[in-house]
Structures are given as structure tokens and as C-alpha cells.
Amino acid sequence: MTNPNQEPTEPKDAEAPALSMKSSILKGVLGLGIFAVITAGLIALTQQMTAKTIKEQVALARSKALYEIIPANEHNNALLNEAFLINAQALGLNKSDHAYIAKLDGRPVSLILPVIAPDGYSGPIKLIVGLDTQGNIKGVRVVEHRETPGLGDKIELQKSDWINGFNGLSLDNTPAEQWKVKKDGGQFDQLTGATITPRAIVNAILKSLQFYKTHQKALLALAPESLFSPFQSDTKSEQL
Ligand SMILES: Cc1cc2nc3c(=O)[nH]c(=O)nc-3n(C[C@H](O)[C@H](O)[C@H](O)COP(=O)(O)O)c2cc1C
């Protein structure tokens, strides 16, 4: 017989689906959490590996460019090992970067300055500008940029000869007012459909020539005293 006062109890079987739903939600949340942690880890790892590769590529491009600008027969010092750090706003730098001095029998013959054009179409453009001791351009190379393929990237020597147009120029043979693209009244070709990129580079090179003219003595005198292997700490950086 059943007791009429007895509380009706849930049948035991009804608890089972509720429990299994809870546990499947828990499993889902746990699974998602693990997935998120693994994904975040993979992204961080990829970023780290990519950053290292980019850094190595930039260093490689730079050392190749250094020897293009100052060929081996024009100096007899170990160019890559004789760098000094420089940090100058006039060169567009916001942290120390390496400058290189080429010497022939101990005498400085050329200098390679790191320069940043801050106002490229897609951001800063990193350059190296090689000068002889008289302030004549020996060569310019773009070592890092994000300009548009097919438009602004013709600043790369692999894509066009445009960057060689600066060779041999100086403030003596090309006055400051000529350092503009033709569209702005100067003497330098703009690139087809891309004026912003060359405008930024022409301006940055002009600034580097003016910088050299102002600091020539200090640069040539300072370099031998602050020689050290490249890619070390910034402790010997010079704020000019
Ligand atoms: C998708 C896209 C990418 C562009 N990339 C560049 C570039 O890399 N460098 C550049 O100078 N102009 C680039 N331009 C063109 C510039 O917007 C601008 O029209 C051009 O530089 C001419 O400038 P100007 O009108 O001052 O002469 C790009 C335009 C578009 C739509």
C-alpha cells in the first residue's frame, strides 16, 4: 500500500539526463579552454619564430647591401665587425642602430649610416646610406619596408634601378631645394602611381646628408673609439 502523506519522489532515472547534460557542458567548456590555450601558444610561438626570421633576413640584407655599397677592394678592415651605435632623431631613428665605417690601412674612407624614412605609404622605410668622407653618396639600399608590391616596392634594387639615382650626389652638387620628387619641383623621378614612397626616401636621404655635414668631424673621430662587434648591447650608443 502507498502512504498518501509521503512526498512524491522524483524517479531515480530522471536525475541521470540532468547529470549527463552538466558533465557534457563541463567537458565542452574544458575542451574549449584547452583549445584556446593551445591556439594562443601556437600563435605566440609562430610570432616568435617569424620575428626571429625577419630579424635574420634584415641582418642578411643589410650585410649584403653594405658590401654592395662599399666593395671589398675599397677597404681593408672587417666592415661588419667595426660598427658603432648611433641614435639620432635627424636620421629618423628612435633607438640605437648600427653605423659602419670602412677604412683603408686604418684611414676612414666611407661611412654607412642607418636611416629611417618615417613617412612611407605603409609605414617606416629602413635604409642604409653610404657616404664617402667628402659627403658624396656611394649608394643607398632599402633594407626593410612594407610598401605595396608593384607600386612602392620599386625602391628595392631587385625591382628597379631607381635607388641607384642617388649615387654620386651630395649637397655640393645637388642643393637642398633640389631634393624633392619632380612632382614637387625637385629633380627625382617619382614612381608610376606611387609618389609617397619616393618622396619619403628623397627627404630621408637629404636629412642624412645634412646630418653628415653637421657631424662629420665627430662621426669620423668617434667611430674608431667606439668600435665593437655588431649586434651587442646598446651601452655605447651615441646620442647626436
Ligand atoms: C592599394 C593602394 C596601395 C598603394 N601603395 C602605394 C605605395 O606603396 N606607395 C605610394 O607612393 N603610393 C601608393 N599608393 C598610391 C597613393 O595613394 C597615391 O595615390 C600615390 O602615391 C600618388 O600620390 P600623389 O597623389 O600625391 O601624387 C597606393 C594606393 C592604393 C590604392
What portion of residues is helical?
25-40%
The backbone outline, from C-alpha atoms, is elongated
Tell me the structural class: alpha+beta
Q: How much β-strand is present in the residues? A: 15-25%
C-alpha termini separation: 102 Å
Count of helices?
2
Q: Could you report the average pLDDT, rounded to the nearest whole number?
A: 85
Overall number of structural domains: 1
What is the strand arrangement across the widest sheet?
5-4-3-2-1-6
Polypeptide structure, described:
With 240 residues, the chain is an alpha+beta fold. The chain has one domain. It has a six-stranded mixed beta sheet. Strand 4 and strand 5 form a beta hairpin. The C terminus is likely disordered. The site of flavin mononucleotide has 12 residues, from helix 2.
Short description:
The protein is built from two helices and six strands. It has 240 residues and is an alpha+beta fold.
What key attributes describe this structure?
6 strands; disordered C terminus; binds flavin mononucleotide
Helices and strands in order, then pairings?
Blueprint: H1 12-69, E1 83-87, E2 97-104, E3 107-120, E4 123-132, E5 137-144, H2 196-225, E6 238-239
Parallel strand pairs: 1-6
Antiparallel strand pairs: 1-2, 2-3, 3-4, 4-5
The structure holds flavin mononucleotide.
